[in-house]
Design goal:
This protein has six helices and seven strands. It has 191 residues and is an alpha/beta fold. It has two domains: 107 residues, 3-Layer(aba) Sandwich (Rossmann fold); 78 residues, Rossmann fold, CATH 3.40.50.170. A seven-stranded mixed beta sheet has the order 3-2-1-4-5-6-7.
């Protein structure tokens, strides 16, 4: 039994902006019998998000919401989430910052994955900054979303060793593999 809806799977939306590899991983995870979530909505702030193809392939409804007028966009999103009875949100490479007001409507039910060991290297260009600072270890973090970027309470982390000739590309690839493993584990842990 999970804390949201008894034993039924929790209706979940995934927010994306890019290639959607974490979305794809979460969809595969959601199809497992043991998974606590059912993804039935994908939201993107851009129609160029390559990840939208995963929604199409898996017959998951998708909505593209223009975030130029943030409060309007968020009202639209909330209305869609309401209609679809969404109880849980996973951010997976969503490149927009949600407002305090939006987050409060889903208090404790929005999580994000970030490609660093938070609280280090919040924000963008993570791998580049990690390498520029000659770090020996990086990784990824799943955390609750609050009104500060990459600041919410940490749910789980996975460390990744940085090799001698590491590049932004190779580090990204290495960490992405761990992200795909960590995100489902973190979801299972909290639900």
């Amino acid at each position: 039994m999970n804390q949201f809806t008894g034993s039924k799977k929790i209706l979940t939306a995934v927010f994306i902006s890019g290639r959607g590899s974490n979305l794809n991983s979460l969809i595969k995870f959601s199809k497992k019998k043991s998974s606590p979530i059912k993804i039935n909505l994908v939201i993107s702030n851009t129609k160029k998000a390559k990840g939208l193809k995963y929604a199409d392939i898996n017959n998951i409804q998708r909505k593209i919401i223009n975030f130029k007028k943030k409060s309007l966009a968020e009202m639209k999103v909330l209305s869609i989430l309401n209609k679809k009875k969404i109880m849980f949100i996973c951010l997976a490479g969503f490149m927009k910052i949600l407002s305090k007001k939006f987050i409060s409507k889903f208090n404790g039910k929005i999580i994000n994955i970030h490609p660093s060991l938070l609280p280090k290297y919040k924000g963008l260009n993570t791998h580049l900054r990690v390498l520029q600072n000659n770090e020996k270890i990086s990784g990824c973090t799943v955390h609750y979303v609050n009104n500060k970027v990459d600041y919410g309470k940490i749910i789980m982390q996975k460390k990744v060793k940085i090799s001698k000739n590491e590049t932004v590309y190779s580090l990204n690839k290495k960490i992405l593999i761990e992200e795909h493993r960590l995100y489902p584990k973190a979801i299972t842990k909290i639900l």
